[in-house]
Design brief:
11 helices; alpha/beta; D-Maltodextrin-Binding Protein, domain 2; single chain; 2 domains
Length: about 280
Amino acid sequence: MGRILAERLREALGQTVVVENRAGAAGSIGMANVANADPDGYSIVLGTLGTHAITPVLIPKSGVDLAKDLVPCGMVGALPNVLVVNKSSDFKSLADLVERARKRPDEVSCGTFGPGSSPHVVTEMFQKSAGFKALQVPFTGSGTAITALISGQLDFLFDSITTSVGHIKGDAVRAFAVSSAKRSAVLADVPTMKELGFPDVDYSLWLCVYAPLRTPPEILAKLQEGIQRISADKGYVAQLEERGAERFAVPSGELQSFVSAETQRWRGFLQQADIKPAQ
């Protein structure tokens, strides 16, 4: 999505936009890099529900206070998860999986990408709602996890639709449900968790563009205006949906309060799920 957004920003702002990946510390390194950059509008960062609402809880000493050091420019989309199983799995439905997991939880395994990752959070939501606790196997990312699922080493996996849709369309895995409030345009035949009786499992990884806090108001206004035009553009929305993402909008005046509310919401959930901050 970053590169799609970069191309759209180039057109909207009339400026060259270069994507620079800064991985590490669950996104904190990239956030800190922009937070400490000159507030001239030339350094912005794509933050997510994870970097802004979950990572600050799990990594409280990351070296950057996102609420104080960055200012939101606009939401640009959301990434739902999809629950997938091996194509030859004995589980023919979500109900089958839940029934087995409740009766013999030690025999049901699932993959995650580490504490606070999307698969970890939505898996915890699912387990809490369904009343079971599966054996969680950590992986470094989607590629290794989906490979393990396809080879029969895992029973189920929550993964981003954007990275799983090819495997689903190619019949390497079967999709039981999506974690978003509504069905995905790219997986229209796959029901939501709510439709299957789990209304509490409602999770999509929102994405928001941020700039350094001291960015001048006129520059910030230009960025916000450009992002709002992009997020409402039908062509851009179609590009998102083709990849399993979806449009997600929050009025610019409500962005800061929205992120603050999300942080509190997920802090509470992480505490309930006994997911502790890094020591």
